[in-house]
Amino acid sequence: xxxxxxxxxxxxxxxxxxxxxxxxxxxxxxxxxxxxxxxxxxxxxxxxxxxxxxxxxxxxxxxxxxxxxxxxxxxxxxxxxxxxxxxxxxxxxxxxxxxxxxxxxxxxxxxxxxxxxxxxxxxxxxxxxxxxxxxxxxxxxxxxxxxxxxxxxxxxxxxxxxxxxxxxxxxxxxxxxxxxxxxxxxxxxxxxxxxxxxxxxxxxxxxxxxxxxxxxxxxxxxxxxxxxxxxxxxxxxxxxxxxxxxxxxxxxxxxxxxxxxxxxxxxxxxxxxxxxxxxxxxxxxxxxxxxxxxxxxxxxxxxxxxxxxxxxxxxxxxxxxxxxxxxxxxxxxxxxxxxxxxxxxxx
Length: 347
What we know:
By secondary structure, the chain is α/β, with parallel strands linked by helices. Among the domains are: 1-88, Spore Coat Polysaccharide Biosynthesis Protein SpsA, Chain A (Alpha-Beta Complex), CATH 3.90.550; 231-316. The protein has 10 helices and 15 strands. It has helices spanning 13-25, 45-52, 66-75, 97-106, 177-182, 195-205, 231-248, 255-273, 277-304, 321-328; strands at residues 3-9, 32-38, 57-60, 82-86, 90-92, 110-119, 134-137, 142-144, 147-148, 151-152, 163-165, 172-176, 209-220, 316-317, 343-344. Strand 7 and strand 8 (142-144) form a beta hairpin. The radius of gyration is 19 Å and the shape is globular. The two termini are 26 Å apart.
């Protein structure tokens, strides 16, 4: 088997019933297999799969290991050249897989790639989780071609050129299996959220590239496991962003974490003053969670040090997208930034 498409499921029965048929149908003539790994769902997902999709291999876990732990355990049981992480709430198109495989086949220095991610509900708009490829700014804030902060753009073909980027969305992420394992897989300290950015950062530090391939398009519902406005999601995002910086920043740039703590504190005060007390509590809790995990972050840095041969430079916007937003006093678009951070892929 060349490509293993693994859908990690946790109580996503409705999404599987809605979208899985099309994933299976899209693989006609391709050396690929769909596998569902289940994080101890309690909504009847497994029973439904056994009844309606008996041909699909199931990997069952005894509890919810999160996005990171679930995928690491699933891939430990699979032999393939390429791994593809696919969210259960993704609708694929007819020829979504071929461009991804073709790119990895013809670009041996690319470790991971992803399709253009559009919104399932607003089909001519980019979707928040990955749009047309991800980047970070100088303070670690992630953004995308087609999505900056909470603003997504209408897709008019403006980002249809394949580009090297900083990170590729975990909603539909294809990786070389050997490099996934060599990089240590997904960091299980994260549990969920921003783990794919952390992995892509490590892969870049190992000397490989991350690509967005817009010739492949999928539609993402988003918020399938946690609603977008969930305080728990906010907690993961704030905590994991700090861990990502602690794991990957060069030693001379670690001061960035102190700046981020201050910026997070300003956000927390803004939540408090606006009456969003659960959001305020989530940020404070995230900081405590980060401090508690600093020793393990240090261990991760030391363990990975021998594999890192360079700093990750592609896809880093040296300024601050937050500051630029407040200065411009308008919704930012990727075209408002230094777009040279997205390097065009040549054959």
